[in-house]
Write a structure and sequence with these properties.
This protein is an alpha+beta fold and about 270 residues long. It has 9 helices and 7 strands, in the order αααααβααββββββαα. This is FAS1 domain-containing protein.
Length: about 270
């Protein structure tokens, strides 16, 4: 009897379990699958494409110097000579880049009073260009650079300078200025800006230019004698000495006086002697 009761309990439990499973399945059957739900949903609107920022323009040298500070005089020279536009073109159209040795405001203050005002516009432009090397030079390249270094002002000895790197400094000499690189202002793969605490003075502007040698006077050429010409032709005639008329007359009168006197003597001698 006890065994039958156990079997009946087990059967009842299985029936109850099957009934629960059936209800659970029936409850889920009306629900649509996730895929069907997604298909039935109205199409979502396509989001607008994200606008990428415009590519950065050419490097603006004056803005770099303004951000660094203490370069007001050099910035003014860049703008007044329009060399800022020239640099913009150089950086935009050349793969060589550029290197700028920018004098600080204190560097300009150490110049003799009135130095800048005494320069012409052309000389100011050359002064700014003298501080620009038309090649990108990283600080590591200072060790291997070849002197003299050509600048935007030119490549001759009067518009170039020498740069010498030591273990703890970089020296710049122009023939009139001797200074060192005082610090890095800016550097990327196209432009390098270094601070100098002295204005780099080019010899071409601030030293007297050598005087050109005086032309050698051409030797006077003798007149060439014509071929076949008689002797004396083609040669300079000897100067003719003109004798005064009174002197010539006196000479002639003296001769005739001698002749007349002699004749008179002969006549007298003949008369008295006969």
């Amino acid at each position: 009897m006890k065994k039958q009761s156990t079997l009946f309990s087990a059967a009842a439990f299985l029936c109850l379990l099957l009934l629960c499973l059936k209800k659970t399945t029936a409850g889920q059957s009306p629900a649509s699958s996730p895929t069907q739900s997604a298909a039935a949903a109205p199409p979502a609107s396509t989001p607008a494409a994200t606008q990428l920022p415009a590519p950065a323009g050419p490097t603006n040298v004056t803005k770099i110097l303004e951000k660094a500070g203490h370069f007001n005089t050099f910035i003014h020279l860049l703008r007044s000579t329009q060399e800022d536009s020239h640099l913009l073109t150089l950086l935009n159209n050349s793969n060589n880049g550029a290197t700028i040795f920018a004098p600080s405001d204190s560097a300009f203050s150490s110049l003799k009073s009135g130095t800048l005002n005494s320069l012409s516009d052309e000389a100011k432009s050359e002064l700014v260009k003298f501080h620009v090397v038309p090649t990108f030079l990283s600080s590591a390249q200072f060790q291997t650079v070849s002197n003299p270094i050509a600048t935007e002002a030119g490549s001759g000895g009067r518009v170039s300078f020498n740069l010498t790197a030591y273990s703890d400094s970089v020296n710049i000499t122009t023939g009139l200025t001797n200074t060192s690189v005082a610090g890095n202002v800016y550097a990327d793969n196209q432009l390098a800006v270094y601070r100098v605490d002295k204005v780099l003075l080019p010899v071409d502007i601030f030293a007297a230019k050598p005087l050109a040698p005086a032309p050698t006077p051409a030797a006077a050429e003798k007149p060439k004698k014509k071929k076949g010409a008689p002797a004396g032709e083609g040669e300079e005639a000897a100067p003719v000495v003109q004798v005064g008329t009174s002197a010539a007359a006196a000479g002639i009168l003296g001769i005739w006086s001698v002749k007349v006197t002699a004749a008179c003597v002969l006549v007298l001698a003949y008369t008295y002697g006969g």
